[in-house]
């Protein structure tokens, strides 16, 4: 069974992809996974050559057959997601974006006018890159179910790693504490939480750390742009100490990083000022993995 | 006027822009809909006047009268209920999987065997920060979906007599859809990087699908970076404002403050532009 290293953050924009892509550059013998299906960005730096792609089915959505519907209104009254609308012509329709796939309307419809129909919610890909195999996905805008999609891309990566005898899986996770992150960290051997030295950064870190704990996943912290606010960085270090998690490293603020990304370069390869810090983080993470 | 501020992903400056817009308005209500990580309060430091528990309905089973027929488990699309029959009679409920849809209670044939009870999954905080009315929804950690909490914020706490600024969650999935649904205008915040552009395109696809009027605000703008400018021109989308990149700004932000006064006039004109467009 290959080992899974996951990078997450309390919120987006903290430098998750900067760190993940840099680790992808350093790490040998791994499969890279972009599990941030809502706003997939790793592909921009990995420049993948897609070898295989497949559409991904979301949860089935309710469909109302207008020929059978008598307009009794039972479904609309019962739906707690406000997913059933009446058009100006009095036809009952389902708002697929709002439909939560609970099937209550289908169960309750006395005319059996409602059925659940499959919809595609995104696509997933297996690609080759300069840095190794890459499994990634794109969720269609407005589609839900990214938790399931995350589970699936991770599962694909594990199958591939077994087939090819690859030792590590490196996952760029989703931000936040909601369903996609829960799927991202489940099954991980080690989680790196990227935090910024801002009031929001510490607040978000506390929440995401609790989430890792509740799933009993080992985690460590990386402070990105630590020198923007050394006071807050100290608070993050104190928080980590109190919580008994290690600060794996601190990456300095460097204007070179956004510029590297604009030039589609991996920050580690392009920016000398952050090299040391990233190498340290890489070494320590591999020891703890 | 209801304006939602969103971005393809987090960290692009959604909260910054939302707050600068709210501050610049004469009659604002700021609603933080990013219920997984609400951050607006960290900058506004509002005086919270009320904290209201946010609850959702979950099933509670009375095993004394339950016949263990299994209909509730069959109806549950989220697999939150498992019923075991002979010899061990038991109903197990996994509340973290429950979406509070009510299907289990609807199908239960025995009166009183399965009733819905309220469970607190978050909190809504209401207060004031200077002239800004402040509302925030915050989900408890480990709760899976913020969508219904956002729906409640909009349905029960939005003051339509005000200029309402809805600070949206990041991304383009269900929580964002819930936030921007029915607003008058959507502000898409982006950064002039390939990541920013990639995420912006997804957001544009979403707001166009939903038929909402929208415009772009570029955060961390630099004159020599044309990515967003070129895209906006090509797609015929208006850039409402360009907030310049500044390390000074980043440092201020990291200390929990924002240059509200400095940008007040600029954002007042952004609000005016939006109003004229409607």
Write a structural description:
The complex is a heterodimer of chains A (289) and B (278). The longest helix of chain A is centred in the middle third of the chain and has 19 residues, at 146-164. The relative contact order of chain A is 0.20. Chain A is elongated and about 70 Å long. Chain A is an alpha/beta fold and 289 residues long. In chain A, the strands form three sheets. Chain A has a nine-stranded mixed sheet with strand order 3-8-9-2-10-1-11-12-13, sandwiched between helices. In chain A, strands 4-7 form a two-stranded antiparallel ribbon. Chain A has a two-stranded antiparallel sheet with strand order 5-6. Chain A has helices spanning 16-26, 42-46, 74-78, 104-108, 146-164, 179-185, 199-214, 230-243, 256-262, 267-270, 275-288, and strands spanning 3-9, 30-34, 49-57, 61-64, 84-86, 92-94, 114-117, 120-129, 132-139, 168-175, 190-195, 219-224, 246-251. The two termini of chain A are 13 Å apart. Chain A is built from eleven helices and 13 strands. With 278 residues, chain B is an alpha/beta fold. Chain B contains ten helices and eleven strands. Chain B has helices spanning 14-24, 40-44, 71-75, 103-107, 147-157, 174-180, 194-209, 227-235, 247-254, 264-277, and strands at residues 2-6, 28-32, 47-61, 81-84, 90-93, 114-129, 132-139, 163-167, 185-190, 214-221, 239-244. In chain B, the strands form two sheets. Chain B has a nine-stranded mixed sheet with strand order 3-6-7-2-8-1-9-10-11, sandwiched between helices. A two-stranded antiparallel sheet of chain B has the order 4-5. Chain B is elongated. The mean pLDDT of chain B is 92. Chains A and B meet through helix 4, helix 7 and helix 9 of A and helix 4, helix 5, helix 6, helix 7 and helix 9 of B.
């Amino acid at each position: 069974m290959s080992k899974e290293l996951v990078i997450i953050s309390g919120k987006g924009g903290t430098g998750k992809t900067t760190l993940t892509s840099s680790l992808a550059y350093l790490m040998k013998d791994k499969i890279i996974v972009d599990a941030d299906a809502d706003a997939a960005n790793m592909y921009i730096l990995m420049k993948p050559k897609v070898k295989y792609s497949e559409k991904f089915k979301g949860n089935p959505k309710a469909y109302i057959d207008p020929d059978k519907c008598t307009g009794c209104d039972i479904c609309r009254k019962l739906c707690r997601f406000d997913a059933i609308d009446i058009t100006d012509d009095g036809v009952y329709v389902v708002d697929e974006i709002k439909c939560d796939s609970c099937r209550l309307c289908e169960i309750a419809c006395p005319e059996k006018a409602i059925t659940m129909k499959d919809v595609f919610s995104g696509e997933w890909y297996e690609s080759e890159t300069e840095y190794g195999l890459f499994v990634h996905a794109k969720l269609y805008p407005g589609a839900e179910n990214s938790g399931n999609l995350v589970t699936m891309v991770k599962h694909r990566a594990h199958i591939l790693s077994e087939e090819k005898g690859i030792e590590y899986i490196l996952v760029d996770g989703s931000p936040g504490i909601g369903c996609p992150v829960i799927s991202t960290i489940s099954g991980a051997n080690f989680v790196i939480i990227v935090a910024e030295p801002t009031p929001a950064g510490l607040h978000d870190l506390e929440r995401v750390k609790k989430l890792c704990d509740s799933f009993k996943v080992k985690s460590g912290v990386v402070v990105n742009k630590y020198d923007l606010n050394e006071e807050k960085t100290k608070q993050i270090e104190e928080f980590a100490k109190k919580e008994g998690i290690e600060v794996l490293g601190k990456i300095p603020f460097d204007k070179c990083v956004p510029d590297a990304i604009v030039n589609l370069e991996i920050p580690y390869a392009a920016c000398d000022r952050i090299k040391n810090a990233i190498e340290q983080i890489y070494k320590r993470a591999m020891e703890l993995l | 006027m209801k304006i939602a501020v969103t971005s393809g992903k987090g960290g692009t400056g959604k909260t910054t822009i939302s707050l600068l817009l709210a501050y610049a308005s004469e009659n604002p209500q700021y609603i933080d809909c990013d219920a997984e990580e609400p951050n607006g309060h960290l900058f506004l430091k509002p005086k919270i006047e009320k904290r209201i528990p946010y609850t959702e309905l979950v099933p509670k089973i009375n095993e004394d009268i339950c016949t263990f027929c299994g209909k509730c488990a069959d109806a549950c699309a989220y697999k939150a209920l498992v019923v075991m029959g002979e010899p061990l009679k038991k109903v197990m409920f996994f509340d973290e999987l429950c979406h509070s849809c009510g299907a289990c209670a609807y199908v239960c044939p025995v009166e009183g065997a399965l009733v819905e009870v309220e469970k607190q999954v978050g909190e809504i905080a209401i207060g004031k920060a200077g002239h800004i009315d402040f509302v925030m929804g915050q989900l408890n950690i480990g709760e899976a979906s913020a969508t219904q909490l956002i729906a409640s914020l909009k349905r029960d706490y939005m003051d339509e007599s005000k200029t309402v600024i809805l600070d949206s969650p990041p991304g383009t999935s269900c929580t964002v859809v819930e936030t921007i649904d029915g607003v008058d205008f959507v502000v898409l915040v982006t950064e002039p990087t390939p990541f920013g552009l990639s995420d912006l395109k997804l957001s544009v696809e979403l707001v166009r699908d939903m038929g909402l009027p929208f415009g772009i605000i570029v955060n961390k703008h630099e004159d020599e970076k044309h990515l967003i400018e070129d895209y906006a021109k090509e797609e015929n989308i208006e850039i409402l404002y360009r907030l310049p990149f500044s390390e000074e700004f980043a440092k201020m932000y990291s200390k929990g403050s924002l240059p509200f006064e400095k940008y007040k006039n600029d954002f007042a004109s952004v609000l005016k532009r939006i109003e004229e467009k409607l």
